[in-house]
Write a structure and sequence with these properties.
single chain; alpha+beta; five-stranded antiparallel β-sheet; 28 helices; 18 strands; elongated
Length: about 675
Amino acid sequence: MFLAGPLFAAPLTREALAPMILAPYELGDPVNDRGVWALLNSGGGEAGYVFETEPLAPLPGFSGAPINMLVLLDREGRFLDVRLLSQNEPIFVSGLGEAPFRAFLEQYRGHSINEPLVVGTPYGAGVTASDNVYLDGVTKATASVRIAHESILAATLAVAREKMQGVGAGPAPKPDPSYNEPITWQEMVDQGLVARLTVSFADLDAAFAGTKWADDGAAAGEGAYIDLYALDLGPPALARAALAPDTLAEVAGFTARAPDDELYLLIEAGEHGLVSEDFVRNTAPDRLTASQDGLPLALRDADILPELAADLPEALQDATKMILRLDRRLGFDPTRPWQISLQAVRLHGMFQPEAGSAHFPLQMQTPERFFLRPKAPERLSPFEEALRNRANDLWALGGFLTLLFAALFAQSRLAGLRAFTPARLAILAVVTGFIGFWGQGQLSVVTLMAVARGLVSGGLEVLLYDPFGLMIWAAAALGFLLWGRGLFCGWLCPFGALQEFAHHLGRLLRLPQIEPPQSLARALLWAGPLALAAMIATAFFAPEQAETVAELEPFKTAITMQFDRPLAYVLWAGGWIAVSMVWFKGFCRSLCPLGAAMRLGGLLRLRRWIPRRTECGSPCQLCRVRCAYGAIKPTGEIRYSECFQCLDCVSIHDDANRCVPLVVAAKRARRAA
């Protein structure tokens, strides 16, 4: 229908969202205009927040569209529920089904945003003591659930920063590729651009002092237990100073593929190392965690084995090295303070050892001079957002409508084409494929009713969410004044085009063509107005049944949903298309409520655009007999309220070999000569 198909859906309304909030909670007031609501407890007190992920973090999935989930978060940052609202991931739509996806989302319940949540499985079979909390992924759909996980984290952290921490994330800064500052490794160390953490064995013993693990450590070594260096590789000047040319090229290639990731070089020259022996590359490191503003950051190995620049100290060349990545889309800002923490683990006991851990944090911050901070984008209105999202479609539609209007203004030339029928079918194919299935521009009487309600309530915003459909409405309205119903019903209705294709298929299959007796055909013309009246009455007096009654129109099933609906709906829509194989455009000429509304165009049109002669109707009846719509009276007059502007009568009128008055006049001229 009219509102189907925007790229990013608007946040759910209260009416749609409230039934999803189950006791003992209920929906409170909206917090902002991005789909964040207050969550109330049974006593009416504020218990947390409710929000959708798509308006806050529209990360595209494999289908190109975001995965939208509903998140319930309490005031301490614990997930009360995560529920799937909509998704178009191919693996879940036509492969595994949604059940595994929904089962994956159930794992969030009870966990906190302060925990480092990771999609995957723990390394090894022994005791790992990692700080990470692992969520089991979905086999064959790991990438899709990771996209969903990142969407949940991004949206949740955005709400947490704004509502719980009092810190607005703002637009994420990006490294300035044009900033060139000649600098050496030692200068970076002196300026604090290279962060360093040193932990001695004595410091390690002090961290476990007074615990059961105090005597479980190895004997103190000669060097440092931890000697960790960390450097931001996002700024090109810093990366050039630290990396060998081959690694620098690999980092540049990675950044080109993932421009939203900030890469960090870690060098550990002590005895601890960076990860456990069971670590798997390209996953979350099990001994490293990070946080900013008290909220966890999602660390991930970049799967790059770094080589350092030749002028770096020899001790660092032989050290353990790793490149990690953090996603700026999840709210990470390298220019503000954050910390990375290295975990030390000790085991107590022989047969079932109990793990204990100590954490050693390293503060990080990269100066602003290395970054470009974009201005916060101005929030667009729904109409402006839709215009931007569908710009290409709108240009293509505008060009098509311009050509169509030009062709219909030159109707005699169009109807006079030797290949008129193939040309018409080509136009209808564009209408079906581009305007209908692709553009979702099938007009519906439901929109007319929404406009009517908007006029009563003083709001017509419903028209602004789909500029593609609005352009079709504008074209139909202009054609309404020029030609009556003919422009839309005959040339721009995708469902009408499907019926016309079915008619030609029926003729190709030599199916018998049925035409009701004239008295029955005239009676059937009242079916549409009665259906229209019933739909309008339902919309105003029983609005809860309006969607059910609207199914009288098969447009939603055939065009919007492309027959992907329950069997009853498919039989209704497909049945009318099948009927058109033997009864030409039966639905259009009988039950269509939108067509009934369009009949008013026969009264409001500004001109009579179909040429007539005095002989039309008396004695010539050829156009009336050939009119598949029964739109010509025996007197030769056109019933414009029933005319679909198919131009068949125009082609006859202008054809000297078919128009009877022209044939007779030619014969008389030859006799006179």
